[in-house]
Queue: 3 jobs
Job 1
Amino acid sequence: MTVAVPERLATSNDLSQDARSAVADALNPLVADAFALYLKTKNYHWHVSGPHFRDYHLLLDEQSDQILAITDALAERCRKLGQPTVHSIGEVGRLQRIPDDDRGDVHPTEMLQNLMEDNQRLGAAMRRAHQVCTESGDVATASLLETFIDDAERRTWFLYEATRT
């Protein structure tokens, strides 16, 4: 979904316009996914209960902070490439692939399992975007994604271990 960039926002870059557009097209759904995962993680953080409340509450707060930071880094990477990024919650909703959870009562174990699966989805989507970056010659974005993939794997690991019986 390549969008025309207003001239005043067209940052100079040595990558071709096609490469920059391809990378932004791969990154913007990740921005939306990160926003969706951030809000879902915060939702669970606010609504978790039970005997492991403190541990889960703190874990989800830490993870949500990390996820929120991803949104800014990816969106700013689009802008460094002279490309637009998401503009609104509506656009996030159209681009996101991480499902929302509007239910009022979710068991804590199910919360953690949902987030584990969502972090795996996000990591897989980042790997696909990494491939686009590699094919486009964008080593800076590829490097950024490598760190974020590792972070997603760490979050997945922690969530997995927290749900083991």
Job 2
Amino acid sequence: MGDSDATAGLAPLHARMREAAARDPHPSWRSRDGQLAALERLVRENAPAIAEAIRSDFGNRSLHETQLLEIFPSLEGIRYTRRHLKSWMRPERRHVSLWFLPGRARVLHQPLGVVGIIVPWNYPLYLAVGPLTAALAAGNRAMVKMSEYTPATSELFARLVAKYFADDAVVVVQGDAEVAQAFAKLPFGHLLFTGSTKVGYSVMRAAAENLTPVTLELGGKSPAILGPDYPLEKFAERVVVGKTMNAGQTCIAPDYVLVPAGQEHAFIAAAQKAVNACYPDILRTPDYSSIVSERHYRRLLGLVEDARGQGAEVVPLSATAEPDAATRRIPPVALRNVTPGMQVMQEEIFGPLLPVVPYRDLDEAIAYVNARPNPLALYYFDEDRSRIDRVLEKTLSGGVTINDTILHIAQDSLPFGGVGESGKGHYHGFEGFEAFSKKKAVFFQSRLNGMGLFKPPYGRLFERMVKFLLR
């Protein structure tokens, strides 16, 4: 199907799914668990084929990283949801004011009908399965728009979804940016988009035509801060691991580091040691991923040249320093003496480039972070509890990992989402179930109640009662 055909076919497809949702507006726990079990089988039974499709889309994507960063968390998220779904579906008891007793208050989680999920290219399995898990748990039908930058994965996932799900339960849509724009304009019960902040603006504008509620999982410049007394080599090793996963093409990768002034050279030396330990032959090892496309490859090289041209020092972190255009592999580099006017300090890097920024004291580091848009993630390394609390209290970010990187996203009990320019709304675990549900407030009036005292015609008894209430 061509992109224009796909655009034209979106509305009828959405209408058919809405009709199916109307026929079964509140699926049972057993029905939802069955859908989640089908999703679990889809991932588990086809994991090798999915990993190979992702590898081919990137040119080279580490099969080990796909197992660790996509297949495992997808399965773990489904398992977690299945374990807890029955309790999530129970009506929540809420407090009733003394004046309305013996009435009862409840919150019901009601499916929204048909939800939309727009998937990015960088983690095409995990960022499709994670939202889909939440949507199915909440009792919805789902339409999933895959990225045109991962055509092999998108085609495979579309075939697998058609095999494991009814065509009015889950469908996969493929196509370019025009299709994505038309997709965002559909009157979904909820729309979740994962991608860049720039595209997030256009998605939110498109969704606004139908007042569609949105969850935006965007990105930004996530800092990693070295505390005053934390072991520098350990900090460098954990930052390098987080930065080089998927060659830095991770929305919560450390974007830049803040280190105490005077430790820049020591940090770079420790980072070089860590990179060469992980990737002794970085241009040939299957464990270091390629940049996904020629356009993104050229963009990253352009960031380096822009920084160099404005006075930054470009320091290779790998024994092999030069990028390989044939495989689109870029060995990691550190950037010293960066300034705010450089492009690399203005936009999310999304690649293996690591600016190193010195700070004089912790308050200056906090002020540096706060002077910029709220990041999707923040990483602070320290053993001093008071300083940790200070950073947590005085910075605002989507999520935080202390003394490591990336790992908060892997905790299914924690909400995942950004704030400000890094995103809107949350999902994962119970927060995902909530995001794709309507929290319906219900009050059950008792047969014995005093509301008869509060109706016209108002007289002296009413005035005495109100005076008592307002005392």
Job 3
Amino acid sequence: MNAERKIYSVAEVNRKARRALESSLGELWVEGELSRVVIHSSGHWYFTLKDESAAVSCAMFLQDNVRVVFKPKDGMKVQMLVRPSLYEANGRYQLIASEMEEDGKGNLQEQFEKLKAKLAAEGLFDEARKKPLPLLPRKIGVVTSPTGAAIRDIINVLTRRFPNIEILLAPAKVQGAGAEQSLAKAINFLNTRGGIDLMIVGRGGGSIEDLWAFNEEVVARAISESKIPVISAVGHEIDFTISDFVADVRAPTPSAAAELAVREKSMFEDELALYDRRLRQSLKTRAQDGRLRLNRAAHSYVFREPATLVRQYRLNIQTLETRMGNLLKMDAQGSLQKLESFNARMTHLLQSAVQQAHQHVDEIGMVMQHRMESKLERDRQKLRRLESQLRMLNPLAVLGRGYSLTRKADGSVVRSMKSVEVGDTIITQLADGKVVSNITGKE
């Protein structure tokens, strides 16, 4: 009996169990919550996937997890494509994952990519349309939840950097049903208010579902149509939304947006102090230069011998008067000669133009006379042709060839014996007259 018994080692049993498990179930999608996540130094991931009533050990090796766009962490809900297997070394049942997505992110990611491609094709992401941020905004509008951490962070940073800054909050829902309409309405509202130099639109971090309102088309178009420069500050540094691409500037966090919005007041004060020192030094230098020039002028020849200088200027003026008089005479003579020369040229040109005009009129008259004679000759030929045709159509010409035309007393033409009766009077038209007859019989 012992000779017939087949003895397996533990390793063989585990191997058979693994093969049977893998071949019977194959690949399948499973969802659950991650816990006890371990990222090994080799790059492999080990974790537990659980739901309300069960848990299972899982592994995702480096060659597969490099394609995952996020880092797994405890409490994250995921969907995974897995292959059930068994770890032969200890006989532990486990799932080997080849793909992993955040729960619900697959469909959302597809929507995100489609809208991103659509708006990019329309040019909403182009750098050329992005507006520069003002150097020192006096009033900043903020679109976010009035109760979230984002507005507190923004206010703290802005007031710390520039205590005089004015902040206007346009409260809006930042997640859940209707959040996208609330955000768009708040953005449009700030654009109707006057005096707002800059706008911050955003919220704190969260899951892709929490941030999804900032991926809606209505919010993207409200930002793109804003006349006020917009800083998008949604989530954390690793989070990207459609609003980030459409906005004029993207900030990784709400606090970073506040830092981008305004420089520290002390920096402006330092720069103003520097400009003040430069201006004072420049004015001091110019004043010293003016004093030196004044001293040099006071000791110059002009102030020491003013009468001599005046006499010299008078001589210069007399010389200039003489030269001007001579130049005026020469200019007048030259102008007179130019006028006479111009008058002679104009007279010659007018005579030439008149002669050419006479010649042109004669040529036109000859052409018109030739055309009139040609037309008269054509009209005569046409008249002769019509006269010949008329003669051929004249019924009297037919009568001249021996034919006659017979009519009844009422003028109707006799075309048949049936149209006359015995006793009727008929009139026969001949070439040289008419014959009146009475019908006495018909044959």
